[in-house]
Write a structure and sequence with these properties.
This protein is of the alpha+beta class. It contains 2 helices and 11 strands; from the N terminus they run H-E-E-E-E-E-E-E-E-E-E-E-H. The chain is globular. The N and C termini lie close together (about 10 Å). It comes from Nostocoides veronense. This is M23ase beta-sheet core domain-containing protein.
Length: about 200
Amino acid sequence: MDTASRSRQIRAIAGIALAILMLGWVPVSAAAVSPLPAVAGARPGASSTAMPVWAWPLSPVPRVVRPFDKPPGPYAAGHRGLDLAGSVGQPVLAVDAGTVHHAGQVAGRGTITIEHPGGLRSTYEPLVLDPLLRVGSAVRTGQQLGSLDTSGSHCAPLACLHLGALRQGSSSQWDYVQPLFYLADVEVVLLPSPS
């Protein structure tokens, strides 16, 4: 392979990797990734340079029914989270420690938003909320936030949890991002073009 071909191949791979990161795209098969194992008191991703690792909000680890589909703009159509298969009444757990930013009804369904350190928020719906959780309440990783409901479920008549992830950007704006990046290690494999 000559130098020019090699250079084009490297630029193409870098462009694909950048597009994957910018668009928040992850293959649906990544949803089958197992959660990271807990290591005696250690929390993966705890360093300031590593991405935080969230616990799964349903136990056992659920199947992804509908993947994240980042909309092209703030008001455009898309799917701003993951739909995770569950059952009515199943406990919904906090993915990480934080503070309740919102807890209440939105469009007839129970929703809760937890703000986490490092400019992240997790959102959960639809659920029957724990009545003791109010704005400002501290929650710990794995704490029950409520139970899964079907009212307004994306999977009606079945139950599923819609889990969203938001990250605060440099302009202080909040933007929906791919939750799988926080839930599990995702390995992206780039293959050379067939040319």
